[in-house]
Amino acid sequence: MQRVAVVRFPGSNCDFDALCSAERAGSESYFVWHRDTDLKNPDVVILPGGFSYGDYLRSGAIARFSPIMDAVQRFAAEGGPLLGICNGFQILCEAHLLPGALMRNARLTYVSRPVNLKVERTDTPFTCAYQGNQVITLPVAHGEGRYVVDEKTLTELEATGRIVVRYVAPDGGPAGAEDNPNGSINAIAGICNAEGNVVGLMPHPDRMTDPALGLTEGLGFFQCRVGTTGSL
Amino acid sequence: MSHSPSATGAPTRAFPFPGERPVTPEVVREHNLNELEYERILEILGRTPTLTELGVFSALWSEHCSYKHSKPILKTFPTTGPRVVQGPGENAGVLRLAEGWAVAFKIESHNHPSAVEPYQGAATGAGGILRDVFTMGARPVAMLNSLRFGPLDQPRNRYLFAGVVRGIGDYGNCVGVPTLGGEVDFAPGYSGNPLVNAMCVGLLKETDLITARAHGVGNILLAMGARTGRDGIHGASFASEELSEKSEARRPQVQVGDPFTEKLLLEATLELISSKLIVAIQDMGAAGLTSSSAEMAARGHVGVELETDKVPVREADMTPYEILLSESQERMLVVVEPKMVTAVQAVCTRWELDATPIGVVTDDGMFRIRHNGAVVAEIPGQRLVDDCPMYYPEARESERVKELRTAEPPHSGAGLPALDEALDLLLQAPSLASKKWVFEQYDSTVQGSTAIRPGGDAGMLHVPGTEFGLAVTVDCNARLLALDPYEGGKAAVAEAARNISATGAVPIGITDCLNFGSPEKPEVFFQFQEACRGIGDACRAFGIPVTGGNVSFYNESPTGAIDPTPTIGMVGLIDNVGDRLQSHFTQPADRIVVLGKARKGSLGGSAYWAEVLGFVGGQPSIVDLGAELALQKLLNHAAREHLLRSAHDSSTGGLAVTLAEAAMRGPYAVHGVGITVDLGLVESASETSDEELFFGEVGAQAVVSLDPALLETFLALAGQDKVPAAVVGTVSDVNENVSISRGETSITRPVSDLREIYFNAIPRRMKQGLSAKD
Amino acid sequence: MTYRAHIRVVPRAGLLDPQGQAVEHALTALGFPEARNVRVGKAIEVQVAAANRGEAEARVRQMCDKLLANPVTEDYLVEVEES
Amino acid sequence: MTYRAHIRVVPRAGLLDPQGQAVEHALTALGFPEARNVRVGKAIEVQVAAANRGEAEARVRQMCDKLLANPVTEDYLVEVEES
Ligand SMILES: Nc1ncnc2c1ncn2[C@@H]1O[C@H](COP(=O)(O)OP(=O)(O)O)[C@@H](O)[C@H]1O
Ligand SMILES: [Mg+2]
Which of A1, A89, B623, B658 could form a disulfide with B650 if both were Cys (CB 3.0 to 4.6 A apart)? Predict the structure, then answer.
């Protein structure tokens, strides 16, 4: 049974969602407080969604300096599987564990709705349960989710297949204006680092894991086992 | 200063705070206290009050805190039942569910602050209701909001609408509570006096329930959370007067919400309660420290002594008067045994919050305030809270309303627009159109348990670790109340119950937010009294209690009193979330059944007359509570048996709008579906005109769809439950026509056109993105 | 003539500024204990065509009163320079 | 000595600024067609204790580099005055 550490920052509000999603997928999961300095040797680390420090100044800008982040940096550097969901993704970018930044939605308003996503990378520790180019539907809920990155890095991300999930039309075709909820460049919804062990995305797999509701399209993000790649 | 003993026998004495204005008749008037009330104060104290004491009285004796015009009427509500764990009188009502779980819920208004500053007004309204729920030991799991504005063609109304929605969203989204429902209505009467009602629903284990009763002489009072500033001083009395130039002038400094601190308060509070470290806790809401301390003491029949100079402040040299009446947000007052103080402070520190000792529980029943040692206020606590004079105002119905009830719309017969034209006009009226523009700005899926999101009838959530779920809704059709407050009050409860039942859930209780004009106007008090009678009768008929609520009077603007708007917040229980029903048609070839009857004269107060003919009048339908209850039972029964594929209640706009809504499907469905329906088959259709049949607002009506194979079983069930059921048509393929007919007359529109109209009605009007303040 | 206006819209003195508070705490934690009274507001840059500086400034102030600043919660400062 | 620093954090030139565009549209709609090239950023005010103005400015720049501005998307300007 693998151990999943969920880091709680003040203002995290999807911490329970991540914790119980991991448990539903058969992991032993536990919270780590942002002031701690030890992750208690987990197999997987998750930075959950929410509004760490109220998202004041910039989403993730303050949380990135929390004491626990040194341990998170080290864990990632050693190749540990690290997932950032929504605010977690924003923190990963602010901490330079992932390139680019997440800016105010193009429409300027907070957006809460289901989106269609194509899973373009299935060899990461968080997407190996999905089929290549599988189209799934997950909710987004954010005010600052417009992914931006410089030309050079963007080309590199695309060329090296580091777009993990992308907003698409319901039929899986290229996203139209309605399908891209925040105006992200190239309809990017989630990316990974060069090594593939650090993944961040704006949509919320952690909100689609409740069997009682028959809504489990997000469960796959929590099902991979360390060492496994390719589908289970 | 005289020292003659007060009526309680206990001589009280207090010394004016240095520099404090002496209490003169003008000062008394400024504090919205009338002569009778001031006489009562003199009698209670046996002397002239200090300014600080006057401020304390004026806050606690404001309508908002004292319910001095409404208490006798509120007493007529049914408040008991097997599920009731906590009825009215606490921060929130509590109902028993199952497996040790209970639900706490409450609705509050924040109308006047939102009229002045829509963003902060609405945000702090959301913050306040969240605190009411988590101070009971419940974790907030759902929010709802009920909003009223003037027409969107006025820039000021667009500004208020946009600001309020953003304020509610930013606050609830940050704290991490999903918004599962609400309503928005637009009518001229709300220009200048918008309504912002926020409801919160929380889950707790019954064993964690804690009430706001101070006890244990010698126990310590801690101020927890944000520091105290000069925000919203006299907010409570501000909420209890009419908006005017004058109130603009004495507008309190705006309260600013900090949802981040709220989230920390929430977690710290729940940890303190579940670890049994505290005796009692209360949020510092309206009238801040004053009401929270005085009310906790009165409930526990003890006294309190506060040292205002110990209260952590945000600004230099604040007076005790300001500290007592400040409505700075995100603050709690906690009662703790002395030996627990350090443990409590440790929990707070972990959540990066301050918890500062500011007073003690005493045995002399006094509400006593010291500043730098000197007593600046000393008032018999029980009398301070309980002895505000009560008023029994005159109630008389306005002649204008009587006339309106019998009036007829301008055009008729040949002059009327074609039915499909009328349908378009209704679907693009902001009050009926999709509220997607609103609920897309609210996180509706955080906490991962959302079973039904906004966009259907009631919202629903799954209670984790159990099979059951809660359905939640807020409803009120003020147009009906304006014409007939008694039937309108019944109708509000009935519509809420239909929304709950349409999901398959069973109504278990309500909270109400009673928004009215000035109770000192006989025609307004008549509306209040009659509406409450209607609400009470409906609840008794449905066997559900009123567990609490909120009264908001003085909703008056230069254009006069608002339409009576008693918003009903209702909670329902579904034993198995797997049984839930959605409101939209799903499968081609499914049969469509109309439950309920058509009725002659069902256009009184209808959206059809108001939005299409520009006429507000007529006698609204008499609400048949027996038929409503039968419909509720049938829907719940059918959901259990998995007989239905969809159910949607029919209310504003009547059957044509209800059918169109179900056919258009949700905002994120790729396409709508076509339908072919013959309304001539609805029971008693023959007695009605086309307008009455298509757009009449009859009550006890719903539209369901189901697999043809289950039709017989379902019709048999409907027969047993004595609900008229007419098989009126079938669902056709995606993107086909919505065709609703009776004999020769029919509406035939491509569903894609209807979707275009219905989903863009509000975005189109709000395009400008940013609206000017006026 | 065209002018460049720099507008600073900041929370009214006395009003709670949660964002300023959070930034101040963060700065202290990051080794900038000397940072005090942090306030966070909006910086808006507008280019305006006007007959002269005085008119440019007057127009920009109108923009602030009408749209850019909320008089209930914010104060604003305007600086205009030729561009 | 204590100084008051006025920091303007603005979106990188060339980067899309939807907020600036929205404000510009609104201004035009409200009768300010002369408003052009609107950019919206953050105005941050900090009071700092320092030996002299130069040191104050240097410290404030460190604050910007470390926390207040995001180098990927934002530029910043600092003005320091005695207070
Ligand atoms: N202010 C709001 N916040 C959240 N959801 C809303 C709001 N207004 C309307 N909705 C949602 O839109 C849907 C339709 O609302 P409404 O037209 O009031 O339905 P009904 O007439 O059946 O009560 C409901 O799901 C409702 O919860
Ligand atoms: Mg409904």
Answer: B658
